[in-house]
């Protein structure tokens, strides 16, 4: 009898895995067409949570995360809040020595400004604040603690490299963090399904990720009245984006990763950012074929003058 139950369990498990891994060949072929002329390396993973179908291009290849590594940092923060080591409203005092350039607001805070962990977590994700991100990484015990949690979640390649013992070679190759399109997408899927840490933590993390400041890439091709959760990452040779769309016909998630990019410019027309917009637009129209929404005329002119 035990053997029969074991057989049934394995049979059902294998079939569930097959259902989850069904390939949307039409979508995958079109994605290949969209990326074929891109001068650089591209990885894409798309998963429709309703149909359980996926499309993948180099989805298990390791890419630099740039600021998308802040998602694993966020997860570790909430894990330690759940465990009682940290508290969401913990009072913190900003030291001007923490200032780190690039994106973010906290670098402009006055020395000794009183803040809290909740503010750090929000700024880290919504405006990709570098100063608060490094502070959060320090508060949770550094990259080793984050990497241990990623391994516990079954992720073999998603790791923090910067300021992490034993990962200097990985840092030289990939920068602050590394991941694969499939792995990073899996974190957002768990968050959406309320299974990452626990329901309350998943909900709050998802709320934070639903307030991205950077709307002129993939998000620009999705109606503003449709909720999205997103994180962007960008350095000279690598531009990537993680997005979940709570679409009317069913949620879908995608990760677009690029590296070794020929175009390292920082204007609106950067080729990687154009690729992200093109893929996002195609996905919206593919999954929502009856939608009449189109990006507003003049959008490009509205944000084209912005510099990052």
From TrEMBL:
InterPro entries in the record: Beta-lactam/transpept-like (IPR012338), Beta-lactam_cat (IPR045155), Beta-lactam_class-A (IPR000871)
Catalyzed reactions: a beta-lactam + H2O = a substituted beta-amino acid
Signal peptide as annotated in the record: 1-20
GO biological process: beta-lactam antibiotic catabolic process; response to antibiotic
Keywords of this entry: Hydrolase, Signal
Domain of life: Bacteria
Domain Beta-lactamase class A catalytic span(s) in chain numbering: 43-258
Residue ranges the record marks as coiled coil: none
GO MF term list: beta-lactamase activity
Record protein name field: Serine hydrolase
């Amino acid at each position: 009898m035990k053997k029969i139950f074991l057989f049934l369990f394995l049979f059902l498990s294998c079939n569930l895995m097959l259902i989850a891994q069904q390939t949307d060949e039409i979508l995958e072929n079109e994605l290949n067409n969209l990326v074929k002329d891109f001068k650089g390396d591209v990885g894409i993973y798309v998963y429709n949570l309703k149909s359980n179908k996926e499309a993948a291009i180099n989805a298990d290849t390791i890419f630099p995360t740039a600021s998308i590594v802040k998602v694993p940092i966020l997860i570790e923060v909430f894990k330690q809040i759940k465990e009682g080591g940290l508290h969401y409203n913990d009072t913190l005092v900003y030291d001007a020595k923490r200032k780190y350039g690039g994106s973010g607001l906290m670098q402009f805070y006055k020395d000794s400004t009183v803040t809290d962990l909740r503010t750090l977590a929000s700024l880290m994700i919504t405006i990709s604040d570098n100063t608060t991100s490094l502070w959060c990484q320090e508060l949770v015990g550094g990259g080793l603690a984050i990497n241990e949690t990623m391994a516990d979640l079954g992720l073999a390649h998603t790791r923090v490299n910067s300021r992490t013992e034993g990962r200097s070679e990985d840092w030289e190759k990939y920068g602050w963090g590394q991941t694969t399109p499939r792995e990073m997408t899996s974190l957002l899927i768990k968050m959406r399904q309320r299974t990452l840490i626990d329901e309350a933590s998943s909900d709050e993390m998802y709320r934070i990720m639903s307030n991205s400041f950077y709307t002129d890439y993939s998000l620009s091709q999705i109606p503003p009245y449709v909720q999205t959760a997103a994180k962007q990452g960008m350095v000279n040779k690598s531009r990537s984006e993680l997005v979940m769309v709570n679409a009317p016909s069913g949620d879908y998630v995608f990760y677009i990763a690029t590296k070794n990019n020929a175009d390292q410019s920082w204007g609106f027309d950067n080729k990687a950012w154009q690729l992200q917009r093109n893929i996002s637009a195609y996905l919206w129209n593919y999954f929502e074929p009856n939608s009449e929404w189109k990006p507003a005329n003049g959008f490009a002119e509205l944000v084209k003058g912005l510099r990052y």
